[in-house]
Amino acid sequence: MPVNDPYDRGRTYRPDRDGTGANRAALIIHTIADIAAAFLALWIVLYLLDANRANVFVGFVHDVADFLAGWSQDIFTMETEGLRVLLNYGLPAVIYLLIGHGLAARLRRV
Predict the structure, then answer these.
(1) Position 14 pLDDT exceeds 70
(2) DSSP characters for 40-109?
(3) Which of 6, 28, 95, 105 has the fewest CB atoms within 10 Å, counting from its CB?
(4) How far apart are CA 47 and CA 82, in angstroms?
(5) pTM of the full structure
């Protein structure tokens, strides 16, 4: 009988209980949170450095940042435009990092 016979009924399937699925899910959540925060931070930097908004890359980063921070727009209404952008896009970045890393840490303990 071949070694890799799929019809071998002598062995029973037992999934590994070493937590690799939970670790993989934690890594995915951790990475998504980091990417979201990176887009928000990149938009803050591009805005503060007065990047050309007609540029395709700058427009893409701005669109993604607007999508990610849509729920937090105009929480802070400051006179200084740079400070307003920093706070309105920085707050969601910090929240995404805290929630994403917290969930990932919790999943790794399972």
Answers:
(1) no
(2) HHHHHHHHHTT--TTSHHHHHHHHHHHHHTGGGTTSS--SSHHHHHHHHHHHHHHHHHHHHHHHHHHHHH
(3) 6
(4) 8
(5) 0.77
What is the Cα 92 distance to its own chain's centre? 11
- What is the pLDDT averaged over residues 50-63? 94
Beta carbons of 101 and 33 less than 8 angstroms apart? yes
Range with the largest mean pLDDT of 22-31, 32-41, 73-82: 32-41
* One-letter amino acid of 66: D
- 19 Ramachandran zone, left/alpha/beta (phi>0; psi -120 to 50): left
Decide: 49 and 41 in contact? Cβ < 8 Å. no
Cα–Cα distance between 37 and 68 in angstroms, integer? 9
pLDDT for 21: 81
Instruction: Please provide residue 16's backbone torsions phi and psi, each rounded to the nearest 5 degrees.
Output: -70, 140
Backbone φ and ψ of 75, nearest 5°: -65, -45
